[in-house]
Each structure stands twice: as structure tokens, then as C-alpha cells.
Specification:
single chain; about 220 residues; alpha/beta; Rossmann fold; Arc Repressor Mutant, subunit A; 2 domains; five-stranded parallel beta sheet; four-stranded antiparallel beta sheet; 8 helices; 13 strands; about 40% helix; globular
Length: about 220
């Protein structure tokens, strides 16, 4: 049973959300000590975090950035903010998905299911492979040159794996969206652009500048 950690300061909404998730078969835990939010979230051992942007003693986006320094637990931002800037910022800080209030309960459950499915990987995938002399660990979500390990977010590794499986061939934006979110209607195009940019930056850190080539109006190729 997957455990979901709820970070929501509205007590009534938190209860409703917890009941919805428990009815769907999830184990839940809710944050109560917002003054020590980061420590409690990291120590929770949750499989997924639902994180509101507007929280006491801070900002959910900055909290997400802090969490990402310590763990790669999947995070879905749940917020009443509708600004694209907030969505792009959340994704750039490492959010796996973003949903605005009010949301349809079924849509939220679909998003949660999709993110958990991605985080657990696909059966039959090799644990390790190589690319340009670097060892790829899909289980850990990392690339290593033998002396240094570079950690990727779940979304970054999903995109990289898809491009690697199709190396030398064009992978369309729709194909990437399907791999990430399982359903195109749930995808914001800006969010995909942010994920691609973050992946390029992470590959550059590994010494793989210009590893991804953009084909305008077609998609991307891993060289």
C-alpha cells in the first residue's frame, strides 16, 4: 500500500483529502508541525507528497526546493494558484506534477496513480545501461562516471530513458508527454519545456553538452 504525505494547512480540506485517498486504497499521513516541515516530510518515508504552495511558516515552492536536496520522493503540487509562472517554477524546483484547486477527485487520483507508476519504473527494464561511457542506473535515477554520481529527478530520467531507447530517432513531444503523464489532456506544454531544459542542464553537468538535439516542429533526438 503506497503512503501519501499530505501538506495542507486547511484542516477541513486535509481531512477530506485524507478520506478520499484512504477510500482509494492509500495510506495517508498529514503534516501538523509546519515550523519543521522539511524535517518531517523527509523523515516520513512516504511514497508521494501532496504539497500546497500556500503553507504557514514559508512557501511550498521553496520547501520543495529544500526537499529535493535530500530526497527524490515524487511531489505533486496542489494549489489554488493558477499562474503559469507558479507552475513553471514548481516544475523547475523538481515537482513531478501540478494540479490546481478546485480539482475533480477522479482527476487527482489519476494524477497520483500516474506519478506513482512512473516512480516505480516499468517491469522488465534493465537496472543499468551505459551512454557515452557513463553508467545509467534506472533504479537510482542516476548517471555515474565512476568517480561522481549525478542524480536525476523521476521526470528527467523518464525523458532521458525514452530518448535513449530511441537514440538516433526523433521522439515527438506527444510521445514524451504520454510517457510522463499517461494522458495528453493533463499536460501543460510549458511544463514539458521546463523538464526538457532541466534535463539538458543536468546532462551538461555530466559533461554531455548538446546531447539532445531539437528538431523544430518534430521533436528531440539523443545524439
Amino acid at each position: 500500500m503506497s503512503k501519501i504525505y499530505i501538506v495542507e494547512d486547511d484542516a477541513a480540506l486535509c481531512r477530506e483529502l485524507s478520506e478520499l485517498l484512504q477510500d482509494a486504497g492509500y495510506q495517508t499521513q498529514s503534516l501538523t508541525d509546519f515550523a519543521n516541515a522539511r524535517e518531517n516530510i523527509v523523515a516520513s518515508g512516504a511514497d508521494l507528497i501532496l504539497l500546497d504552495i500556500n503553507i504557514p511558516h514559508g512557501n511550498g515552492e521553496l520547501l520543495l526546493k529544500q526537499i529535493r536536496r535530500e530526497c527524490d520522493t515524487p511531489v505533486i503540487m496542489v494549489t489554488s494558484r493558477t499562474s503559469e509562472a507558479d507552475e513553471v517554477l514548481s516544475m523547475s524546483y523538481g515537482a513531478d506534477d501540478y494540479i490546481t484547486k478546485p480539482y475533480h477527485p477522479a482527476i487527482l487520483l489519476l494524477r497520483i496513480s500516474a506519478v506513482l507508476k512512473r516512480s516505480k519504473g516499468q517491469p522488465g527494464q534493465p537496472v543499468k545501461s551505459t551512454y557515452r561511457g557513463l553508467t545509467i542506473s534506472l533504479a537510482k535515477g542516476s548517471l555515474s562516471d565512476g568517480t561522481q554520481e549525478f542524480i536525476f529527478t523521476k521526470n528527467e530520467m523518464i525523458i532521458f530513458s525514452l530518448l535513449l531507447d530511441n537514440r538516433g530517432r526523433i521522439v515527438t513531444r506527444d510521445q514524451i508527454m504520454t510517457a510522463l503523464w499517461d494522458n495528453n489532456e493533463f499536460v501543460n506544454d510549458n511544463a514539458l519545456t521546463v523538464n526538457i531544459s532541466r534535463l539538458r542542464a543536468k546532462l551538461a553537468e555530466c559533461g554531455l553538452e548538446n546531447a539532445i538535439e531539437t528538431r523544430k516542429k518534430q521533436g528531440y533526438i539523443l545524439l
